[in-house]
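We emphasize that the prediction below concerns an isolated chain of 183 residues; any contacts that depend on oligomerization or on bound cofactors are therefore not represented. The input was used exactly as deposited, without trimming of termini.
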Amino acid sequence: MTDFTFRLALPADLAALRTIMDAAIGELQRDFLTPDQIAASRAVMGLDRQLVDDGTYFIALIGADIAGCGGWSRRATLYGGDHSAGLREPRLLDPACEPARIRAMYTHPDFARRGVGRALLAQCESAAQAAGFSACELMGTLSGLPLYLAAGYRVVEAIMDDRGGAPVPLKRMRKEFGVIPMA
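Result of the prediction step, given as a token string:
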């Protein structure tokens, strides 16, 4: 396992985060989606500045390099970037009865398969639990599905998001804290 450090993302990081997201969407989904679906993914995935503004978006560093980024949210938006039409739902969630959201998880392709996603996910879950949430939900891509399943998430809904042109398969997933993942 690689040693990571984490810090909260700042507005000054936005350009670097967009670069990482673009590379991850374009490269890490190649084994799962067609070129048309990858292009369509860009319409429904990407940077949500609200996470940065809320102080819930983390950067994972290996040395001085940004290896990945990901966050959690106390807002109802489940997935999508600033530019994603029809996905914005800024209402605050009630931690007593609603799950936090795991959002915008991206690993730079140069750091793939080194535990970046798992470390970011654990960081986000810990922060959501500290804020009083007892569960998390996320919208997973096919490339992220193995990570989320291994971390104890279960698929609760499969969708096809076609707002970018070609239909992109996504999985809504949920994890209750205190549930031990099956190996």
